[in-house]
Amino acid sequence: MADGSKLTLGDTSVEIVQTPPHTPGAISLIFEVKDGNQRHVAGLWGGIGFNFQQTEANYTTYFNSVDKYAKIAKARGVDVPIANHSTFDNALDKIAALRTRQAGQPHPFVLGAENQQRIFDIQQECAMAGRAKLRTAAAAPAAPAR
């Protein structure tokens, strides 16, 4: 799927955003969801973790992918962050919380747009820390031979 294209499934459209370098062809998705009569926008980040060759270029690409996706997510009003691995967003705990959710209680998946943007900030900070670690290691003098 091309970057920015949409896939329509019934009355739901899923926006495709290319977000390398997690894996070749990594994509992230944005789509509308409902909680009763309330409308929300979900953003499924498809690149959790640094599952790529650890190079400065890849960390920079990751940072730029997060930046691009964060801007699109903000423009679309994403308030439901979803990760591509359920352990990263506590999805199983949230599903369990839905079973006992009472009327009027907040939906456990709806974290709000501000929290979604903070997640993006942290992802970018981690990418820059990874890149800095590589730069520091590359600049360190070689250990003397024994």
What would your notes on this structure say?
The chain contains 3 helices and 5 strands. It is α+β, with helices and mostly antiparallel strands. Strands 1-2-3-4-5 form a 5-stranded mixed beta sheet. Helix 1 links the parallel strand 4 (about 40-45) and strand 5. The longest helix has 27 residues, at about 115-140.
Number of strands: 5
Whole-number mean pLDDT: 93
Please report the number of helical segments.
3
User: What fraction of residues sit in β-strands?
Assistant: 15-25%
Measured on Cα atoms, how large is the radius of gyration? 18 Å
Major sheet: arrangement of strands: 1-2-3-4-5
Write a short abstract of this structure.
By secondary structure, the protein is an alpha+beta fold. The chain contains three helices and five strands.
Features:
146 residues, alpha+beta, 39% helix
Layout of helices and strands:
Blueprint: E1 6-9, E2 12-18, E3 27-35, E4 38-45, H1 56-76, E5 80-83, H2 91-99, H3 113-139
Parallel strand pairs: 4-5
Antiparallel strand pairs: 1-2, 2-3, 3-4
